[in-house]
Design brief:
By secondary structure, this protein is an alpha/beta fold. The protein folds into 4 domains: 54 residues, ADC-like domains (N-terminal domain of TfIIb); 242 residues, 3-Layer(aba) Sandwich (Rossmann fold); 197 residues, Dimethylsulfoxide Reductase, domain 2 (3-Layer(aba) Sandwich), CATH 3.40.228; 133 residues, Barwin-like endoglucanases (Beta Barrel), CATH 2.40.40. It is built from 26 helices and 27 strands. The strands form 7 sheets. A 7-stranded mixed sheet has the order 5-4-17-16-15-6-7, with helices on one face. It has a 6-stranded mixed barrel with strand order 22-26-23-25-24-27. Strands 11-10-9-13 form a 4-stranded parallel sheet. Helix 8 packs parallel to helix 13. The N and C termini lie far apart (53 Å).
Length: 702
């Protein structure tokens, strides 16, 4: 048989964020190899092991290939195969019946992290009439989107192309996490060019070992450290006077607040020796240009938004905001946003006012995002109205959301639950209808048009979908038509891509053969445009916060579980727990099916310092029970000095697809069984305390 091999230039989506340029080789209609594209302006030839393992994922025998409808009880694994028309008709009829009986707000749509079809989710939900969309954004990246909006700008991203002379890595293990707009290869090249580096992290990561200054911070105290550093910068007159005097308001009030954060108090709160904090502040303030690379760990606690805005102020105070080699507000990618695509203006005001938690978490409501606990509250209590249905795309909600046992109980109570995914998961097993989603090899798309680095890239369909799988975009498009909004969706999916690209002047057929489109960056735009605030300046004291009843200035609030709690509690739960440090082999709860990735990382791990391990009689490789007031899970010990003796760090997203049971062992090692979703939470976003919980550990006798 003659072999025919083709090579396609495209954009990887093996992780939930994607964005790396790759070449995909296809032989006789099957993907055989993925390799990095050295000319890609973001990833520069980098391709991680998840990208290489995508070939195995593509042809994995466990893939969902056909629409399925539950015929037994939830969670008992009994299904019947149905066709697409029957599936979507059934879903639409059930959703419209619920809407007629209880109002559109009683249906919640949802999606997983960083999904490039999220604008389709909002188009459907807004036309349907519900203000409620469940995402991970309340404690992951979107808080910085929201506070940047309040401060009159888009997110300031690192300008690696202009080669920072100093990089402040704050809660970002960038060589492992490779998030969104930037990839770790850019940081690596910057360091090879001789840049200085400061690392702020509770864990002594690979980056920390390379750092000029490593500040090993107590989890959930980031805002206190940032305020302390800024106090040093102001006291030593190291700040940018011209920027502060000409382009900011509220600086005097801000300086008064900084007085609370003396070096001595910051050391007491954060555990960072004051001398280290002072030296790091001086290095960052005096090295030009300097850039801040911060991770989402700072957002997973009660000080979420204050940490984000304090870090933005740190950038601005030192003259690195929108400066070459600093943190730049890049132009939006060409063709993005077609703000009207999501049709937020079609959601009636009376429906928008019904957003769950919108009256409490006003910063989240500002960007149309809600925190999950308000959904579970409504399911349990029927207040302020009942939530009867959930329609979720690309989210293993049961493992991904905090307080997982509560999530499980809430999902079981739903009248109607629909999921779309590539594989069966503990979440799909609780659904009434499961829709099979296509992989990134199987559909055309415009990659990265939801990001803010100024680029868009083509992502190409290189093979036909397995079975009857469909791209999430097409599922949502067809569901929107079935719900009765035929005129608002497209008969041909390619027409929707042309619509998104319309303002660029290109069609999809023209764009798909291009390497990328880019909006060229401009710097210090505030000098001619100001900031999009009432004052036209960057507000250190935020008037809108005062009107909302929030503190107009950043401050530190002790986490609800901490060493400062009453002695009896601390004796019962003596260790600080970090949840969710990045795992190179996996993204969230994804990829656990893949043999190539599981062979080198087969078990869920918890990192324990040798001193703590010795105290509790734990050896490296032992199974360890981790307990909090919410419950108990089991992980394997990794005894290591990367964590402080008072801290343990547990992996996130674990379940066991290889068991082929309806529950997939979802509650055995899922760290979200022991996390909390209840108050107190971050007041603006409702962010959850996933970093800085208290726990106890003990060896499991097997």
């Amino acid at each position: 048989m003659t072999q025919t091999t083709s090579k396609y230039r495209t954009t990887c989506r093996a992780c939930g964020h994607g964005g790396c340029g790759v070449y995909v080789e296809v032989t006789n209609g099957r993907v055989v190899k993925v390799s990095g594209d050295r000319e890609h302006p973001i990833s520069k030839g980098y391709c991680c092991k998840k990208g290489h393992a995508a070939v195995e994922m593509q042809y994995h025998p466990d893939r969902l290939k056909y629409p399925m409808r539950r015929v037994g009880e939830r969670g008992d694994g009994k299904w019947e195969r149905i066709g697409w028309d029957e599936a979507l008709t059934y879903v639409a009829e059930r959703l419209n019946a619920i809407k007629a009986e209880s109002g559109a707000e009683s249906v919640v749509f949802g999606h997983g992290t960083g999904r490039d079809f999220h604008r389709f989710v909002y188009r459907v939900s807004n036309l349907y009439g519900t203000p409620n969309v469940l995402t991970p954004g309340h404690m992951c990246y979107l808080p910085r989107v929201a506070i940047s909006k309040v401060l009159g700008m888009d997110i300031p991203m690192v300008d690696y192309d202009s080669r920072p002379k100093c990089v402040l890595n704050w809660g970002s293990n960038h060589l492992v996490s490779n998030p969104d707009e930037n990839k770790g290869i850019n940081l690596a090249q910057t360091l090879r060019d001789g840049a200085k580096m400061i690392v702020v992290d509770p864990r002594r990561s690979r980056l920390a070992k390379r750092a000029d200054h490593f500040l090993q911070i107590r989890p959930a105290t980031d805002v206190a450290l940032a305020m302390g550093m800024m106090r040093v910068i102001v006291k030593e007159d190291l700040y940018d006077h011209d920027f502060v005097d000409s382009y900011t308001t509220g600086f005097d009030e801000f300086c008064e607040r900084l007085e609370k954060f003396t070096p001595e108090r910051v050391e007491e709160i954060t555990w960072v020796p004051k001398e280290q904090m002072i030296e790091a502040a001086r290095l960052y303030a005096t090295t030009k240009p300097a850039a801040l690379q911060w991770g989402v760990g700072v957002e997973q606690n009660i000080n979420c938004v204050d940490a984000d805005r304090a870090l933005i102020y740190l950038v601005a105070l030192t003259g690195n905001l929108d400066a070459p080699g600093g943190n730049v507000i890049f132009g939006l990618p060409p063709g993005m946003p077609r703000a009207e695509f999501s049709l937020f203006d079609r959601l009636p005001d009376e429906q928008r006012a019904k957003m769950l938690g919108g009256d409490r978490y006003k910063l989240g409501a500002l960007i149309n995002r809600i925190t999950p606990h308000v959904i579970w509250d409504a399911i349990e209590t029927g207040e302020p109205y009942p939530v009867r249905s959930l329609v979720v795309f690309a989210s293993n909600t049961l493992t991904a959301r905090e307080n997982a046992r509560r999530v499980y109980d809430a999902l079981k109570r739903l009248d109607f639950f629909v999921t779309a995914d590539i594989f069966p998961t503990p979440t799909t097993e609780l659904a009434d209808v499961v829709l099979p989603a296509a992989t990134w090899f199987e559909h055309d798309n415009i990659a990265d048009y939801w990001k803010v680095h100024g680029y868009v890239f083509p992502r190409l369909a290189v093979v036909e979908p397995e079975g009857e799988a469909l791209p999430d975009h097409i599922i949502l498009n067809e569901l929107g038509r079935k719900l009765g909004f035929e005129e608002e969706f497209w008969e041909d999916y390619e027409d929707s891509l042309d619509y998104i690209l319309e303002e660029t002047g290109f069609t999809w057929q023209q764009f798909k053969d291009m390497p990328y489109l880019r909006t060229e960056p401009e710097f210090r735009k505030y000098e001619r445009e100001g900031f999009n605030t009432r004052s036209g300046k960057l507000d250190f004291w935020i008037p809108q916060y005062a009107e909302w009843g929030y503190d107009p200035l950043p401050d530190f609030v002790e986490p609800p579980e901490s060493p400062a709690r009453e002695q009896e509690f601390v004796e019962q739960y003596p260790l600080i727990l970090i949840t969710g440090h990045r795992i190179f082999n996996f993204f969230g709860s994804e990829h656990r099916q893949t043999g190539a990735l599981r062979r080198t990382h087969p078990d869920p791990l918890i990192q324990i310092h040798p001193n703590a391990a010795g105290k509790y009689g734990i050896d490296d490789g032992d199974w360890v029970a981790v307990s909090t007031p919410r419950g108990r899970v089991k992980l394997r010990a990794e005894v290591t000095d990367v964590v402080d003796p008072r801290v343990v760090s547990a992996e996130f997203g674990w379940w066991f697809p290889e068991r082929h049971t309806p529950d997939f062992g979802w509650d055995e090692s899922n760290i979200n069984v022991v996390t909390d979703d209840g108050p107190p939470l971050d007041p603006g976003m409702g962010a959850t305390n996933l970093k800085g919980l208290m726990c106890r550990i003990e060896r499991v006798v097997t």
